[in-house]
Model the fold of this input.
Amino acid sequence: MVRIGAFLVGLFFAGWLLISFLFGAYAYVSDPPQPTVEHEFHQAPKHVAFSFEGPFGKYDRQQLQRGFQVFKEVCSACHSLKFVAFRDLEALGYNEAEVKAIAKQWAIKTPDVDPATGEASTRDPVPADHFPKPFANNVAAAAANNNAVPPDLSLMTKARHHGSAYVYSLITGYQEQPAELLKEFPDAKTPEGLHYNPYFANLNLAMAPPLTAEGQVTYGDGTKPTVDQMAQDVAAFLTWTAEPKLENRRRAGLATIIFLLIATGLAYMAYQNIWADKKKAA
Amino acid sequence: MSFPWAEHYTPKHPLMQWVDEKLPLPRLVYNAVGAGYPVPRNLNYFWNFGVLAGLALMIQIVTGIIMAMHYGANDLVAFSTVEHTMRDVNAGWLMRYAHANGASFFFIVVYLHIFRGLFYGSYKAPREMVWLLGLVIFLLMMATAFMGYVLPWGQMSYWGAKVITGLFGAIPVVGEPIQTWLLGGFAPGNASLNRFFSLHFLLPFVIAAVIILHIWALHIPGSSNPTGVDVQGPQDTVPFHPYYTAKDGFGAGVFLILFAIMLFYAPNYLGHPDNYIEANPLSTPAHIVPEWYFWPFYAILRAFTVDFFFVPAKLLGVLAMFASILLLFFLPWLDTSPVRSGNYRPTFKKFFWILILDVLVLGYCGGAPAEEPYVMISQVFAGYYFAHFLIILPLISRFEKPLPLPGSITESVLSRHNIQGEQEAVPGMGADPQPSNAG
Done:
């Protein structure tokens, strides 16, 4: 009885799937799916080498500081960094006094309440504060940015596939819309106010090219601030904001794995030892 | 418990004798996972995965309880409390990555455990109850994992919750009220997050309870073995402790090394980047996919694209997805071959490997975007999945001529040693069914 019922159920599901397949295959052959413009022109991130790649890679503190400078002078005008606190910057090699000064001099102020009147006010950030947001809310952010809300950057490199390379590619990837794209997809012309970028998922990005000229930022350490260099540096900085414990993690991992290798080796010897009499041919 | 020659618990220390009189808990442990449980001597490494699944559950419970201390089950703060755990809690990143990857490793070992059971016929009499309880554990795990994935309240959490609860919406008439009731609203929100957190905390302990029943049911007939031949006497078994505790210790070491490599060096590899974007009900991700361990079932769900008269395709997909798991409950009565081990069933063995391939392809399609050719591939392979269990398997067990079985477990162990000398006594799952390495 069970087997007859099962046979009928199996026949139904398998049979109906076969029929669905035939429908699908017929549609696929008679009316093949048209390639989309994203499918044809979207590009995977460029290859770029970072110091933190590989199992033993570490952040380059100098690069993180340069990237932070790019974030401070360029990105932070529109993008928030809400999960990162000023105190976290000590990991970039700044000392306590420097962090205090960075917080105090930060262009965007931290929202507060006037202790006398109870009215909304602002104050200078302190190291314990997270980076203040450039816009009071999403409506204000959208209104100031051609109706697109600039996303928070704290986790950006983990929120995209190959995030570090993605950030670098996106910043350096702005270009004229290719002629063959317009020829093949005449309706896909980049709308007014958007910017063509083949590294962006739907190819048209509200953000204008943020890094446009060499020397837009003046580095203190003498590194030449080319657009490529600045893009790499800010991508490295945003990798750190997304994964600040990366070095602790890899260090702990190495110790753990060495310990486990030794422990497992001993466990294997114990196993062989205990089974020695059972494995001999009787 | 199971065999008359099992060693007896005889506490020597007066304190242990005193405890044994009042509460024989040490005796219970001794008989369950100690020297008092005789186990076939020829188990291969595929028998390690039960213990490893228990280990994975322990890892999940410990890391989960610690994370719950820092988590806020509220849709306004859930995402940022998870980030707080990652950044500001001592070793919080370790707990969270261990928990997220621990779920994946839990499913890896459980899937290997299930396929071990499928190949060696562990579901057959007299162990049907062990199999049924194992499936209950599997269903509870799936529910727990799904609800746990919602808790970080990222984009995939939110939209995954919406899609999965939407499955119930496919049920005619009562579907939408059920969906609303499950979510506590018309869309995932704070009420959903709160109840998912509550249940996600509860279910692992329910799983632990069903595991106790699973082991209890196992210990009535005793463990199966790679030959599928019944234990005939003391020469066929060894005490669980120290023999299998030692082997499981080694297995646990290998498991933990692989787990550590993933956890410390590729912790986000198995996750989806979209879940690092905070949940946004107004922005649908381009591709909504569940975690990898649900992909085969997700492929089956999406394979139904054509309405069956008045039954909409979506409802068929939902029914098929549930059926693909529920049919496993009937397996002991679908496979009627008296031979348990796939090593002695030449036809069964071929189809077993086709099934493995089938499930892997379904998994790949389930993770791919819902477009052609993946849907067509899913249709063919989902069709095979149902045909395998519901049509092919009953027919094989009827017509297949099994190979001769060894006379006893000991005979199979000894013949292997005589021919192959002192080799490692562990054949692979697909080992040739000759007595020489059929251990």
Q: What stands out?
A: Chain B has 16 helices and two strands. Chain B touches chain A through 68 residues (CB under 8 Å).
